[in-house]
Specification:
This is DUF5787 family protein. With 344 residues, the chain is of the alpha+beta class. It is built from ten helices and 13 strands. Helices cover 32% and strands 25% of the residues. The chain is globular and about 70 Å long. Bound molecules: iron/sulfur cluster (SF4).
Length: 344
């Protein structure tokens, strides 16, 4: 039986964390952060690889492991060094100031800005400088079985990514077939898209991507004709402003920081007695002892016919891991996620 797409996706994430970039190496000042299943309201990518300024990434840690939303970023990035009235310190938000006040209170509760009241006015002061920690964003779409119809569907999606240029590079990760990726498939994909061919836990470049202009205006493809003989409709495009793109990239980076790629375990049942983490080459993958294979996040739920909760005795006295193996697995993955956020 072929490995499910979910397992392939976990392999891609782990490979990227170990090996990125595919050819050549990063300088010592760069660290890599990998996240899974993230994007904007209209587009979600399977894997995101963030190339980060190592020092700035370490400095980001003082703001805590939870993401800063777009509203919080507005406050934290512009909070002044010295006490100031918030309306004078922060740029015009483009929405009512009362929402900014709410965000300032939220930031103060999280301990990431200082606030005080002076003469009925709210003043704020930064606690730390918010670092520009993410240098590049690389989006990877995972399609282990890249046949003609998958390439056509992906081609349309990826064309939108290339036109918008929210990421600096776009790749497709697929399973190596032993032969070269068929030229007919390549023709269906935008030439700017890179292709990574995976053989187990190793990858090689089948096609190099072009760098996208993430700092420049992008084009949002809102609607496109279906291309049939009778289709005379025109495609509709929208302009994506560089400021909008910059803000979205920051929000995306923050969500990747919070989530990482190991959050998959949060929707699975590591508290099932059949749940294991197994090493396979350089990868560590969830394994279901009852099914005798890697399980998907979807099937590993309380509704699974083989689900068997770990006995209470495992969670109490006599078991070497506090809280039982399920809790132990979660803690282990959380620790690894935290380590990825704090490179040496
Ligand atoms: S038996 Fe079901 S719930 Fe238990 S680990 Fe396997 S897939 Fe998950």
């Amino acid at each position: 039986m072929r490995e499910p797409e979910f397992t392939f996706e976990l392999r891609v994430c782990q490979w990227a964390e170990r090996e990125w970039p595919p050819d050549g190496s990063l300088d010592d000042g760069t660290a890599v952060l990998v996240a899974r299943q993230l994007g904007t309201r209209s587009r979600r990518w399977d894997t995101l690889v963030l190339e980060c300024d190592r020092e700035a990434l370490a400095a980001r840690a003082v703001f805590g492991p939870d993401r800063l939303t777009g509203d919080l970023l507005h406050v934290v990035r512009h909070a002044p060094r010295e006490w100031s009235y918030y309306r004078e310190a922060l740029p015009e938000p483009g929405y009512p100031w009362r929402y900014v006040r709410e965000t300032i209170h939220e930031a103060a509760e999280r301990g990431i800005v200082d606030t005080r009241r002076r003469g009925g006015r709210i003043e704020l002061r930064r606690r730390w400088h918010y670092p520009d920690w993410c240098r590049r964003i690389v989006a990877i779409e995972n399609k282990p079985d890249l046949d003609a119809s998958a390439a056509r569907r992906l081609g349309d999606q990826v064309e939108r990514d290339v036109a918008l240029g929210l990421a600096d590079e776009v790749w497709i990760a697929t399973r190596a077939t032993g032969a070269n990726v068929e030229p007919a498939l390549l023709e269906r994909l935008p030439v700017e898209t890179g292709i990574l061919a995976f053989d187990g836990g190793d990858a090689s470049v089948a096609w190099h991507p072009a760098a996208l202009a993430a700092d420049e205006p992008g084009t949002r493809i809102v609607e496109r004709p279906n291309g049939g003989d009778r289709d005379r409709s025109a495609a509709r495009f929208e302009y994506a402003d560089p400021d909008w793109k910059r803000a979205k990239r920051r929000e995306l980076a923050e969500r990747a920081y919070e989530r990482g790629w190991r959050a998959y375990v949060e929707t699975m049942r590591p508290d099932c007695r059949h749940f294991e983490l197994r090493r396979d080459g350089g990868d560590v993958l969830p394994w279901c002892a009852a099914k005798g294979r890697t399980q998907t996040a979807r099937e590993c739920s309380g509704r699974c016919a083989d689900f068997a909760p770990e006995p209470p005795a495992w969670r109490t006295r006599g078991w070497p891991i506090e809280g039982g193996p399920g809790k132990g697995i979660r803690r282990l993955l959380d620790r690894q996620r935290e380590r990825a956020r704090r490179p040496d």
